[in-house]
Amino acid sequence: MRFGWRRCLERWERLLTQPNRHRAAAVSASWPRTAASVPVRGEIGHSSLGDLSLGSASVASQRIWAPWRLPYVKDASKDAEQGCIFCAKPADDDDEANLIVHRGDRCFVILNLFPYTNGHLMIAPYEHLATLAELDADTVAEMMRLTQRAMSVLEDRYEPHGYNVGFNQGRVAGAGVEHHIHMHVVPRWGGDTNFMPVLADTRVMPQTLEDSYATLKGSLD
Fold it and tell me: Could you tell me which residues are beta bridge partners of residue 184?
């Protein structure tokens, strides 16, 4: 099987081993030219590259098909409160299908359907509120207790090297569901950000969501 990222990596490795004055020509020569190519022209001040035309570089000639991301892509363009996943999923009577690994009195813990890494959890209140300031003290306290518990369980089951923990409040801050506040708990490992996201805009997930659910279900009780 041929992988576009492997070809791309090999090209850039060859490019970086060449002297600066040859790199622009190497970029132009290494990429196939097509009718759909995007013209690129570079001028870098008085450097050794000078005013060199880099020719036409084909863009995204290799594809990894991921049809399961279509619902996310469609929802990402919406900016409305209807169809809130943090309201709909706990209301449904199927925790396994909805990836809910724990239900508390005021909050629940759910696996992210589009995780940054394996074990990416979210803690959300049942109440549909958009900001942290709107939550009452008891709900905030339970969210923090569940966050601590989630990190303890992830430490035991996955042995990560570190964590990203926090809120994305508001669309401009990166919130995918901006009208329902939720806490992210993301386990991290050295090397989990490698050339795949950089060169291919693709993350490699070694564990399926079903296996992650089986690993974490009931562990926060």
Answer: 122, 166
Q: Which of 102, 120, 180, 182 is catalytic?
A: 182
Instruction: Spell out the per-residue pLDDT of the chain, length 221, in tens.
Output: 445 556 666 665 665 565 554 544 544 454 444 444 444 444 444 444 444 444 444 555 556 566 666 665 555 555 455 589 999 999 998 999 999 999 999 999 999 988 888 999 999 999 999 999 999 999 999 999 999 999 999 999 999 999 999 999 998 898 889 999 999 999 998 877 654 444 444 455 668 889 999 999 989 98
> Which domains occur in the chain, in start order?
4-57 (no CATH), 73-216 (3.30.428.10)
22 classed as catalytic: no
Q: What is the pTM of this model?
A: 0.62
* Tokens coding 163: 């964590």
